[in-house]
Amino acid sequence: MKPLFNGRKVNLATLLTSLVSASVILTLLILTVSSYHSNKNSLATTYLSLNYSKAEKMSHSVDSLFISMRNHLETTVNFLEENEGMSDQEIHEQLDLLQTSSGYFNSLSWIDETGVIRAISPNSIGLKGEKIAAGPARDALDAEQPGLTVPYMGLSNRLIILMSQPIYSKDGAYRGMIGGTIFLQEQNVLNHLLGNDAVEQNGSYYYVVGPAGTLLFHPKSEKIGENVIGNPVVRQLTQGKDGKELITNTEGIPMLAAYSHVSEAGWGIVQQTPYSFAEDLLIDQFLQVLKNLLLPSLLLLLLSIFIARRLAAPFTHLGNLVNGLAEGKAVSQPLKDNLMKPHWNREADILTKSVAIAFEILERNNQELTHSALTDALTGLPNRRKLEEVLEGWSSQNRHFSLLILDIDHFKSINDTFGHQMGDQALKGLAETLQTLIRNTDYCFRYGGEEFILLLPDADRLAAYQVAEKIRKEVEQTLLVPGRIVTVSIGISEFPTQTESLEELFRLADTALYQSKDEGRNRITVSSSGNPS
């Protein structure tokens, strides 16, 4: 009779050794791959959220800018209407005054109802007496109402946008319009507002598009005037929508893009990060995890093989554990506790505790990755993601607190004069100074660039002002940059006394900060808007 099994047999020790080796390797592989995919989604979500916050902030800033520009035009028109008898030269002097004092417009002109340019500032443009023909400027004149044109080539052969404000005589007759222009491809108010740190070290950058998808601001100035309506997020912006998503831009590059609509001008701001940067960062983190796990994993594997040759019983338990992991089941706390329980057999006791140590190492590395995602790498302060977590928690509790937005004055000039390394040292020095001046219960975050956020729980605006003043004075007296006095401007708002909306709370503080900047910097502005209690 032919034997039932006549092949080569595998002895129990070899079989158990193979099973344990496979179990340990498979366990580590499953946990590592799961961690990789989890962190991949987390990184994408984090950068989309950060980009959306910045796009939204820029949108609010541009909105505020255009409201201020419109107010300046209205004030000038009101003055001219009240002083109807002014000569062309006197009107020119008023335009000169507005153009030099506000800094909002590259040029200002009075165009009468027939289309003739009666006065223009500065004189160097040389268009006085010219008559505008058909086009956006003529359309704005004929509309006889406030407006903002699409980008077009002006009489001076520049790519411009025109903000117009109609002017009337006292008897109601239309006298033309006062027009303020922004030269898109030259230095202008948008460059000053948006040009600082437009491109970050990680490749993130932002740009501005008009209502028809034309680039109005871009880090690469040669792209200004180009139509990018083919970009999916630009199409969303032209419909007045906000959002964030992974897209492929017009150059075929995958981007983590967030976009926000500027309601006052009908423009849109896009902040985006190359997806490749998130992938590279994830790979670096993944390799670091593997590096940290390599030696413990190797020791665990050798120990498991050693024990497997002497003991068979514990393998049943480990086999069930790996099967559960392969099926996607989480490692429960009771199972972890069971692994830590003393075993009557010495070898089995060592084996189970070794597996428990491996789980602790993996969990610790996951915690380190989570901490890294919530911390600013340069200053060590919590970042925007941590800020959002704290604000959401306090908002749900309806907790009383004040919010301070703090911005280093003329930070770009520090980078330009002393270099980005000194700029980074100044940021770190400021972070250390802030932490010494706040309470243990207060929070200090790096919001991005040279901007910091402070949250003061159970503090009203008066108490917040006192803290802010202490910070302002201390910073002014601290040598953050050798041979140069560094100052800060601060804006303050209060929750929920002024508003129960976090978005509105930020807007109020940001507007107050903008006022501090506008009034000369190195000062504090407490927001007086909102609903006082």
Sum this structure up briefly.
The chain is 50% helix and 18% strand.
Describe the structure.
It is elongated, with a radius of gyration of 32 Å. Helices cover 50% and strands 18% of the residues. It has helices spanning 12-82, 88-102, 136-143, 189-194, 232-238, 275-308, 313-326, 333-340, 346-373, 384-396, 411-418, 420-437, 461-477, 502-518; strands at 107-111, 117-121, 147-148, 152-153, 159-168, 174-183, 205-209, 215-217, 243-248, 254-262, 267-274, 401-408, 443-448, 451-457, 488-495, 524-526. Helix 1 (12-82) runs antiparallel to helix 6 (275-308). Residues 1-5 have low confidence and may be disordered. Strands 1, 2, 3, 4, 5 and 6 form a six-stranded antiparallel beta sheet that branches. A hairpin with a 5-residue loop joins strand 5 (159-168) and strand 6. It is a multi-pass membrane protein. One of its GO terms (molecular function) is diguanylate cyclase activity. Pfam families: dCache_1, GGDEF. InterPro entries: dCache_1 (IPR033479), Diguanylate_Cyclase (IPR050469), GGDEF_dom (IPR000160), Nucleotide_cyclase (IPR029787), Rev_trsase/Diguanyl_cyclase (IPR043128), Sensor-like_sf (IPR029151).
Question: Features of this protein?
Answer:
single chain, 533 residues, alpha+beta, six-stranded antiparallel beta sheet, five-stranded antiparallel beta sheet, 16 strands, elongated, disordered N terminus
Low-pLDDT runs of 5+ residues are 1-5
- Largest sheet features: 6 strands, antiparallel
- Morphology: elongated
Task: Please state the oligomeric state of the protein chains shown.
Answer: single chain
Distance, first to last CA = 99 Å
**Helix percentage range:** 40-55%
Radius of gyration: 32 Å
Name the beta content range: 15-25%
Question: Given the structure, what is the number of helices?
Answer: 14
Number of strands: 16
Average pLDDT across residues?
Answer: 81
**Helix/sheet category:** alpha+beta
Order of helical and strand elements = HHEEHEEEEHEEHEEEHHHHHEHHEEHEHE
